[in-house]
Write a structure and sequence with these properties.
single chain, alpha/beta, FAD/NAD(P)-binding domain, Elongation Factor Tu (Ef-tu), domain 3, 2 domains, 5-stranded parallel sheet, 14 helices, about 35% helix, binds flavin-adenine dinucleotide
């Protein structure tokens, strides 16, 4: 691609999408002004001042090239993703997943951004992107302020762009101090690997009695009540563990507590259910309770989670909680290059566009920066083939009738018809492999032919 030094881009928000977008443009010789508010005030989910903060789990999910998450990461790598680059540099062991040391990762992103000669960082809260674009003499503006966009900007978006108030609530999982766990009741094993191989995940197996007693307490424990103005609409694949318990006594056992691939346990027994723990850092001094996002009050979390085998003296580094998540109805408000239908120089990127997840948000930063770069170079926007992970994600937010944030998953990619022979074998696996192979081929052919 050719590029032009005459255009300048304003990026609002130095989260995963904003950092990715700013670096993509700067690396293509486009000057960027990056406005970030966290040094003035952290939002309720943030803990550090550095950019691209991972506010909950430290995992960017699977690297397996045959998984939907792996496909997305590989496409991002082909496009020169800064976020994946820094994540790989600060990875911690997590089986097939890309988990990172969150402090070192954010520090590296921040240093990269601040030291780039074409990125000017401005520490301020943006409330009117169009005015700010003029003030900083920029040609285009990308709003990447995420699920916890500050009130003043949100008000502007509601008034000027969306007109509708779309939001729902997400929940954070607790982190436990490794030294406080009784490891004699737990075992290391990754799903579908032999126990002799050890593993990155620590598992707390439960008997049938232990599981039902635990679920009963989860269901009846005291929850944090939603505030008056809040309308809790949880993301179905990220339900609070206590809500699962309320839905049915076996719901958790078929979700994050499923023992599948973890049997037999350390005593050679088959657990009825399992709580999985993932390392928070390379030292393994803290563990995240996988899938244990919760609405329980802090006091109740300590009481109920200490029922987990090995947790009788557990000390929690932080407890779980619920948070707001704002996002737009992209189909109604944006073009496929994620440009506002109303303001032709205004783009949105990241979770605010209606995707869900760290990697997905970063990928939408890359996607939008790519489209802005094309525009600067006098090229038409181009849609990514729906057979690719990135194309499928954009297609999803641009077509879904009733917006509901989504992670990347195979359900978003067009299906493939199997032959009669293939139908007789492991259908699910064959189908995934074929869809993954097609995605790789289509992306490679599409991206290599671009101007
Ligand atoms: C509580 C919570 C937990 C989550 N847990 C997970 C998880 O475990 N795994 C997962 O994959 N995804 C998770 N997500 C979803 C989501 O993918 C991440 O929040 C992701 O960080 C979104 O990336 P983003 O770049 O769109 O926004 P963010 O990473 O949030 O970045 C937005 C940036 O914009 C800044 N900003 C906001 N308003 C303004 C303003 N007016 N002016 C200037 N700057 C502003 C913010 O300070 C922030 O730095 C979670 C979300 C929430 C809210």
């Amino acid at each position: 691609m050719q590029n032009s030094m005459t255009s300048r881009v304003l990026v609002i928000g130095a989260g995963l999408a904003g950092s990715e977008a700013a670096m993509f443009l700067a690396r293509h010789n486009i000057p960027v002004v990056l406005v970030e508010s966290k040094s003035l005030k952290l939002n309720p989910a943030q803990k550090i001042k550095n950019y691209a903060e991972l506010v909950c789990t430290n995992s960017l999910k699977s690297l397996d090239p045959n998984s939907a998450h792996g496909l997305l990461k590989n496409e991002m790598k082909s496009m020169g993703s800064f976020i994946i680059e820094k994540a790989m540099e600060h990875a911690v062991p997590a089986g097939d997943a890309l988990a990172v040391d969150r402090e070192l990762f954010s520090q590296a992103v921040t240093e990269g951004i601040k030291s780039h000669p074409l990125i000017r960082v401005v520490e301020a809260e943006a409330s009117n992107p169009i005015e700010l674009k003029k003030e900083f003499e920029c040609d285009y503006v990308i709003v990447a302020t995420g699920p916890l966009t500050t009130k003043s900007l949100e008000d502007w978006i509601l008034k000027e762009v969306s007109g509708d108030d779309f939001y729902f609530y997400d929940a954070i999982a607790p982190v436990v101090d490794a030294d406080s766990l009784d490891l004699s009741k737990m075992y290391f094993k990754d799903r579908h690997k032999d126990i002799e191989e050890g593993g990155d995940y620590l598992n707390a197996p439960m008997t049938k009695d232990e599981y039902y007693a635990f679920v009963e307490e989860l269901a009846k424990a005291e929850k944090v009540a939603p505030k008056e103005f809040e309308d809790w609409k949880f993301f179905e694949s990220c339900l609070p563990i206590d809500l699962m318990a309320e839905r049915g006594k076996d719901t958790a056992r078929f979700s994050c507590m499923k023992p599948v691939g973890l049997e037999p346990d350390i005593n050679g027994k088959w657990p009825y259910a399992v709580v999985q723990l993932r390392k928070e850092n390379l030292l393994g001094s803290a563990y995240n309770l996988v899938g244990f996002q919760t609405r329980l009050t802090y006091k109740e979390q300590v009481r109920v989670f200490r029922m987990i085998p090995g947790f009788q003296d557990a000390s929690f580094i932080h407890l779980g909680s619920c948070h707001r998540n704002s996002f737009l109805n992209a189909r109604k408000l944006l073009d496929f290059d994620l440009k506002s239908k109303k303001y032709s120089d205004l783009y949105f990127a990241g979770q605010i566009t209606g995707v869900e997840g760290y990697t997905e948000s970063a990928s939408m930063g890359l996607y939008v920066a790519f489209q802005v770069l094309r525009r600067i170079n006098g090229l038409e926007p181009i849609s990514f083939p729906v057979e690719t992970a990135m194309g499928a994600l954009v297609n999803y937010i641009m077509t879904i009738e009733k917006p509901c944030p989504s992670n990347i998953n195979f359900g978003l990619l067009p299906t493939i018809e199997l032959t009669k022979d293939q139908m007789k074998k492991d259908r699910k696996k064959i189908k995934k492999d074929l869809v993954a192979r097609r995605a790789q081929d289509v992306f490679q052919s599409f991206y290599s032919k671009l101007d």
